[in-house]
Structures are given as C-alpha cells and as structure tokens.
Amino acid sequence: MDMDIIKNMQNKKRLRNTLDFINDICLELAKSPERTTDIIFKLVKLYTDCIVTDRIFGVMERKYFNNFSFWNLMFENTDKISKNIINSIEYIKLPQKICLQLSEIPIIVSPHSRNKLIKNIISVNTDKENWRQQTGINAQGFILYLPIGITFLNNNGNHSVTGGYIKNAGEITISKDNPYTRICDMSKLYDLIWFDGVNYRLISKDKIISKAVSFEFGTAFEIGRIIKNNNISFTYNK
Known about the structure:
Strand 5 and strand 6 form a beta hairpin. The protein is built from 6 helices and 11 strands. The chain is α/β, with parallel strands linked by helices.
C-alpha cells in the first residue's frame, strides 16, 4: 500500500481517538459541575505548543518560514477559501480589558529570525525581567479566537513574544485602547467545514476544500467543535 495512504489512514485514526478522549473528559466533567472546564483549553494548548515548538526548532536549524495566520495554518491552498467561509468569523465587541497569561493560554507565534530570537531570549533571561506587551505606536496586537481559545499574534513582535513564551512568563492585554487587538467568534465556521484528519471538507457537500497544513491545528480545530457543542466558555481575567 502507498505510504501516503497509510499515513492518511493513521492520521484519521489518531484524530478519532483524540476526539473520543476529549468527549470522554467532557462527559466526566458534566458529572461534577463543581470542576472547572479550563482543563479542556490546556489540552488545546498541547497542540498549539507542538506547532510553536516545531517552529522554534526550525529557526534554530536555520529553516525559513512565513508568518502564521489563522487561514494559512489551516489550508494548504488558501485560494480555495470562499467568502462565505471567511465571513463566518465574526468580531465580538471588546470588553474594556481582558488579561491573558502567556504561560497558560493556547497561543500561536511565528518566529523566523535566528538572531532576533537569540536576542529576545537573552533579554528576558533574568529573574526580574519578563516579556511585556508593547503599547503606543508599536503596539502589539493579538486576536483571540473563540470558542477554541487560541490567540494569534496579529502584527509585530513575534520574537519578543516567543522569548516570553519560552520563559513561560508575561501577560497579554486585549482592550478597546489597542486597535490591533480583537476577539473573534468562529462558531459559525463549524457549521460550514470540518477536519477529517487529512483534509478540510465542506459539511454541506462533503467536498474537500484543501489539504490541511497542520494535523495539530486541525485537531485543535475539532476540539473547538466539542467545546462549542458542550457550551464550554473560555475564561480570562478582567
């Protein structure tokens, strides 16, 4: 049998087993309402950590990368994204301010320069200095996608944020005062597409849209569907 076919079959099985595991956890959590559901987002974080860690290793090994975005981390062929799919993601009115701990949330950053990464790792390598979000003219922006709970860096600062990510310290603020920060609701996207372990498909026609760029992100995407179906809320500090 062709090796690609075998790998695709294996990935589909991996996805099914993972989603069965997440569903079982949700069933157990439902039996004990006093228990927090935050653990589900920690499981999403395992997958985003895989993506970012692999990226950091690539920078160390002098590989070249483009910046991650929500769409180019999903679809190998972004030309296949219809306006209907893009417009399914809606902006949520921002609260005055929310705070996210870099050490606790699922986050995607895109370091690409070996020298910049070295510089920023060194800059936070003290007991007193943690990564701090830039404000003002060079404000760093972040987009929080719900219900999945994944945050993407929206503009500049990939290497400084990665320094904080590696140190496991720092705080992200999403607020009305920073025009580069947003919260997006992707709930309607789950009515349009699904990930089968290899490809993203249209639900209405069961038609392949594009091969997935990342198995890990596709799996996190499907965990987000379980989060949505179980009405699990992402919590943050105000």
